[in-house]
From TrEMBL:
Record's keyword terms, sorted: Membrane, Transmembrane, Transmembrane helix, Transport
Keyword Membrane: yes
Gene Ontology CC: membrane
Domain Cation efflux protein transmembrane: 14-224
Subcellular location, record wording: Membrane
InterPro entries reported in the protein's UniProt record: Cation_efflux, Cation_efflux_CTD_sf, Cation_efflux_TM, Cation_efflux_TMD_sf, SLC30A9
Protein name as annotated: Cation diffusion facilitator family transporter
GO MF, one annotated term: monoatomic cation transmembrane transporter activity
Main location: membrane
Amino acid sequence: MGRGREHDQSAFTVVLALAANAGVGLLKLGAGLLTGSGALLSEAAHSVGDVSTQLMLLTAVRRSAKPADRRHPFGYGKERYFWALLAACGVLVSGAIFSVYEGIRTITEGSEESSLLWVNYLVLGLALVMEGTSLVQAVRQVRRDAAEHDESVPRRLAGTDDPAPRAVFAEDLTAVIGIGLAAAGVALHQLTGSAVWDGVASLAIGGLLTVVAFLLAQSTKTLLIGRQADSRTLRSIELWLEEQPEIDDVVDLMTMLTGTDQVLVCARVDVVDDYRAGQLEEAFARIDVELRKEFADVHEVFIQPVPRTNRELRERVLHRYGREMADQPEDLTAR
């Protein structure tokens, strides 16, 4: 999938989730105020958090597409990670904290009985349909992305360099679970006459949102710091470079994700001694072009000739990867 098409797909997923959460949030808020249900008010706060999250993710998708300039020669790809990190914090602040507060308040103070509890079930049913629609779209994008990278869905969710579909998937799945918790709290409140169950449901929703916010923030942090490409891509690039006639061995290979589907490659190679400096300059220029054609995600390439006998460099590589690259055929994934 081209970068432009993938950008549009991520934007569509986020916009659909934004529309669903905005509509659902208004319904939950109205039902919560009408019936006094703490669980519904917690779910309304959850939806508000999701709306703010999707606005940040939409900002991330748009701003990360800006072309490179003089001040940012590697582009603005990491803007997507910065806004995704803020979005994860938004889930915690606007959703989880309010839900915990509402749960404690409901348990300690109780709530007035309402004859309109049926409104809660109607709203939760509509919310399930709308959130489910958004979740289906997120699942489709994740499955498509996993198929293109020949990975399982769980592995792709854990290793993807695009935080937008992962965040939408996590939030929509959490929303569906949250709806189930809210429905259980409302039903137990109605059956027992005790508002404690409503409060317990709110606390459970708050705890769920806290876990999701932490997981999203943790996964985005690694991308923002500068994660390397996945081991399969790293090994494939290494093998491709070693197939070039001018390269005797790859001594060191470093990669970094500079954005979604953007990989920076820095290679230190031991070149064949028979080539003159001018020939190597032409060879490195050719390798730069062909490597980016062979690997669509490779965005920038830097190649440095070094002797493979350099002990200090080999020790650094050994410390980083657990093996020396030169003359070592084993797969990186084995480590």
